[in-house]
């Protein structure tokens, strides 16, 4: 029987994304309105949170309600940048992993976020299913997605300046491994993955260079903060934040269990120099410079 092909991964290895896009890219407006949306959707307290697509750790300090955070990215250089920004402590666990093959015990997390990450997923449903498997029933999950049904895309389509329809349900890949999604598709995928949507906020209403140039930043953030509350009525912005709850009768992992072996699914590991070893199948998983590496090699 032929093994299904692994979905392609958008790898930020060696990227200066934090510097070029955020620090030097005139993105303070986007950063502040995203921080505001997160503050409105995050729970008041939590134990162990999964942050998928951590990058250089831009959002991690905003998860102060959680006692511990597991930071996941496919790129080790992104995780190294996050380490440099956040430091090393018992509160943070850095993990290089593929979102399609998460190396965590079922039901180990009581919260998760995936911000500016889903838009790189060729198989978003599979990614969401992996997240759900790692969460306890009742866990909070905050997802941000790039919305194809935004006003700019709608106007461009109606004026004949854009071929793809913002009204159709299927994703649009506007450049390699960069997708925009329709809100209805996101809701269907969340529901079929075992999530119940509780709240949604529309974000970045004024993501236009001319607007940001002539209207004071503080005013733009306040206006966006007010407009975010319309997210339950319509979704017409390029970015949408969705809060949902993991539902269903699924088991919760033991308090001392975090990782599972991707080869045999066992949770018992032995410490070794620069690695942890699965006590069941003997597979070595690298642990170097404070980063666990659970990426499977390409076959």
Short structural summary:
Helix content is 26%, strand content 26%.
Question: Which descriptors apply to this entry?
Answer:
single chain; 299 residues; alpha/beta; Rossmann fold; 2 domains; eleven-stranded mixed beta sheet; two-stranded antiparallel sheet; 26% helix; 26% strand; globular
Q: What is the number of E strands?
A: 13
The CATH topology of the largest domain comes to: Rossmann fold
Distance between the termini: 15 Å
Count of the domains: 2
**Topology pattern, helix = H, strand = E:** HHEEHEEHEHEEHEHHEEEEE
Can you tell me the residue ranges where pLDDT is under 50 for at least 5 consecutive residues?
Answer: none
> Do you know the CATH architecture of the largest domain?
3-Layer(aba) Sandwich
Q: CATH homologous superfamily of the largest domain?
A: Vaccinia Virus protein VP39
Instruction: Order the strands across the largest sheet as they lie in space.
Output: 8-9-5-4-1-2-3-13-12-11-10
Q: What is the molecular shape?
A: globular
Question: Helix/strand/pairing class, anyone?
Answer: alpha/beta
Residue-averaged pLDDT? 95
> If you compute it from the alpha carbons, what radius of gyration comes out, rounded to the nearest whole angstrom?
19 Å
Largest sheet geometry: 11 strands, mixed
- Beta-strand content bin: 25-35%
CATH class of the largest domain: Alpha Beta
Helix content: 25-40%
Counting DSSP H or I runs of 4 or more residues, the number of helices is 8
């Amino acid at each position: 029987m032929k093994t299904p092909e692994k979905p392609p991964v958008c790898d930020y290895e060696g990227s200066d994304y934090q510097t070029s896009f955020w620090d030097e890219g005139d993105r303070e407006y986007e950063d502040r309105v995203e921080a505001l949306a997160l503050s409105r959707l995050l729970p008041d307290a939590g134990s162990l949170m999964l942050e998928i697509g951590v990058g250089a750790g831009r959002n991690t300090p905003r998860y102060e309600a959680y006692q511990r955070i597991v930071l996941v990215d496919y790129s080790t250089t992104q995780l190294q940048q996050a380490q440099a920004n956040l430091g090393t402590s018992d509160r943070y666990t850095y993990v290089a992993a593929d979102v399609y093959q998460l190396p965590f015990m079922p039901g180990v997390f009581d919260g998760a976020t995936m911000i500016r990450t889903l838009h790189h997923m060729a198989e978003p449903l599979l990614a969401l299913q992996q997240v759900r498997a790692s969460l306890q029933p009742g866990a909070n999950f905050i997802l941000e997605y790039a919305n194809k049904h935004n006003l700019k895309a709608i106007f461009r389509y109606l004026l004949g300046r854009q071929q793809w329809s913002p009204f159709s349900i299927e994703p649009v890949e506007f450049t390699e491994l960069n997708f925009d999604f329709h809100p209805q598709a996101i809701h269907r995928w969340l529901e079929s993955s075992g999530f119940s949507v509780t709240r949604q906020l529309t974000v970045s209403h004024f993501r236009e260079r001319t607007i940001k140039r002539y209207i004071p930043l503080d005013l733009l953030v306040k206006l966006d903060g007010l407009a975010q509350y319309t997210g339950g009525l319509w979704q017409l912005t390029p970015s949408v934040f969705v809060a949902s709850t993991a539902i269903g009768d699924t088991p919760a992992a033991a308090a001392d269990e975090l990782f599972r072996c991707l080869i045999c699914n066992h949770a018992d590991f032995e410490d070794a120099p620069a690695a942890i070893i699965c006590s069941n199948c003997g597979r070595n998983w690298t642990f170097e410079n404070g980063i666990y590496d659970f990426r499977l090699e390409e076959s």
